[in-house]
Amino acid sequence: MDKPISILITGVGFVAGHIIDALQARHPDWNLSVFDVKSSDSWRDSGIPYFQADITNLDETVEAFEKARPTIVIHTAGWVPGQGARYARRDLGTVTKINVDGTRNALQAAKATGVKAFVFTSSCCIVTDDMKHEYPNMDESLPTGLATLIYGYSKGLAEPYVLAANGEEMLTCAIRPSVILGPHSRLGPGDYQLVPQIHACIAKYETPFIIGSGENLYDFTFVTNVADAHVLAIENLLSTKTAAGEAFFISNQEPVPFRDFMLAIWREFDHVPPFEVRIPESLAWLAGLIAEWATWITGMSSMATLSRGSVQDATGTRYASGDKARRILGYYPRIGLQEGIRISCLVGYT
After folding, report:
1. Where is each 3-beta hydroxysteroid dehydrogenase/isomerase domain found (predicted)?
2. Residue 258 buriedness (CB in 10 A; 0-12 / 13-18 / 19+)
């Protein structure tokens, strides 16, 4: 590329903040800017150009891209449903508008402004949100479009647009992180769903209960490793281009039993379950159905812990092969899972 490398990151959330940190550490000479619907004094005060616009509005998106004039876009902007909304359908319209229409708008704006490379923050949920099947050692050859939960469904609609846009004028690829944990970055927020929800089980006296065998293997990824994968994708598209048109599962490459992961988090808060009670999956599923009805009747669905979906999530086998990411991107997780858990829990959730 003849002109200096300029990168626009859409969204100023959990992952985006760590991507900024990784880019500034590895390529301090690259010009960075950010794009988000929210106003943010902290980002503006950082000295990084900040463009406020709504990704679901094509005109606003194009205008922001024209001002930023990036050579590369990292599209992290999206909406992740919270605990209660993850297993429901009520927010499908919102999720689709932001995650699908917003991605199409970002692609259209990128093409209109001469962007040369486009990296999409997808998700492992594009596959694993299919709650009808188990996914041990999954790889990128698996079909998408089977997700039954709204987040994976939306990413399954958006990612093909990104990969189909790959061509001579603009190279594209997709990063599919597994479930992410980690602290806040210098400018962005930290994990507000995974570790906080598991920590909350202590106060709710839920830690002794094991649903199913507790031995089902699951993938997790420390957030700085996710950021590294994005940087590696950019470097590839600027050099060998072997990642062009491809999607990559990204994880810590340390699948662990779901129960062991929770125990490791509770240990960081000096908590050990005082006893253990195993609940058959079928019984837990029935209890989840009853809980769904109860929360629907009371109108407190946002407070629900137990549901049929959460039971399926907690008992499913979902982990990915890292072969493709290692082979093409040269991705290896720098922060191990145990260290990632320790760092993630340092912030405290009391």
Report:
1. 9-274
2. buried
pLDDT tens column, 215-252: 999 999 999 999 999 999 999 999 999 999 999 999 99
Domains observed in the chain: 6-178+222-253+318-334 (3.40.50.720)
Tokens of 345: 């829990």
Is 218 annotated in the active site? no
> What tokens does 312 get?
């399926």
Where do the DSSP E strands lie in 125-226?
135-138, 171-177, 179-181, 209-211, 217-218, 220-222
Q: Against a cut of 0.90, is the pTM above it?
A: yes
Half-sphere exposure of residue 249, counting CA atoms within 13 Å on the CB side? 28
pLDDT digits (tens, 9 = 90+) for 186-198: 888 889 889 998 9
Query: Which of 87, 151, 153, 218 is flagged as catalytic?
Result: 151
**Continuous segment of H or E residues that includes residue 319:** strand 318-320
